[in-house]
């Protein structure tokens, strides 16, 4: 967990997801909620598993995409002893939590 998130309560929360085409509501909890909040906080910079460590970023992104959350994957080259590419995930829709304290049943 990054320093910007002090809470360890990742219970279910309702988010409104807005794209140019539609608005929907999803219920997100656990690591998927953590990943969504990391994506929201990172803005247009996006997240990488290096900057925002978590064991299964690709899995969290996959699960969020299944809920119609629009996340772009940018493949970046990196140097070092294990040079190659890494994924940067960028939220490309608006995700807003419902009223503070409103949780899913």
What do these coordinates show?
With about 100 residues, the protein is of the alpha+beta class. The protein has one domain. The strands form 2 sheets. Strands 2-1-5 form a 3-stranded antiparallel β-sheet. Strands 3-4 form a two-stranded antiparallel ribbon. β1 and β2 form a beta hairpin. α1 packs across α2. The longest helix has 13 residues. It is globular, with a radius of gyration of 14 Å. The chain starts with 12 loop residues before the first strand and ends in an 8-residue tail after the last strand. The relative contact order is 0.25.
Short précis:
This protein has two helices and five strands; from the N terminus they run ββααβββ. The chain is an alpha+beta fold and 105 residues long.
Task: List key phrases describing it.
5 strands, Winged helix domain-containing protein, two-stranded antiparallel ribbon, wHTH_alphaproteobact, 105 residues, alpha+beta
**Compute the gyration radius: what is it?**
14 Å
- The structure class reads alpha+beta
Biggest sheet: strands side by side, in what order? 2-1-5
Helix content: 10-25%
Average of the residue pLDDT scores: 89
Task: Count the domains.
Answer: 1
**Bulk shape:** globular
How does the major sheet shape up?
A: 3 strands, antiparallel
Unreliable stretches, pLDDT < 50, 5 or more residues? none
Summarize the helix and strand pattern as letters.
EEHHEEE
DSSP strand (E) fraction? 25-35%
Question: How many angstroms separate the termini?
Answer: 25 Å
What topology does this entry show?
Blueprint: E1 13-18, E2 23-28, H1 30-42, H2 57-66, E3 71-78, E4 84-91, E5 94-97
Antiparallel strand pairs: 1-2, 1-5, 3-4
Pfam families: HTH_91
Protein name: Winged helix domain-containing protein
Domain Winged helix: 26-99
């Amino acid at each position: 967990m990054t320093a910007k998130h002090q809470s360890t309560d990742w219970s279910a929360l309702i988010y409104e997801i807005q794209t140019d085409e539609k608005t929907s509501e999803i219920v997100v909890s656990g690591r998927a909620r953590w990943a969504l909040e990391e994506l929201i906080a990172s803005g247009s910079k996006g997240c990488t598993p290096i900057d925002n460590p978590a064991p299964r970023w690709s899995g969290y992104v996959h699960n969020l995409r299944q809920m119609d959350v629009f996340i772009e994957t940018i493949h970046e080259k990196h140097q070092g002893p294990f040079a190659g590419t890494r994924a940067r995930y960028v939220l490309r829709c608006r995700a807003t939590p419902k009223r503070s304290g409103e949780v899913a049943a």
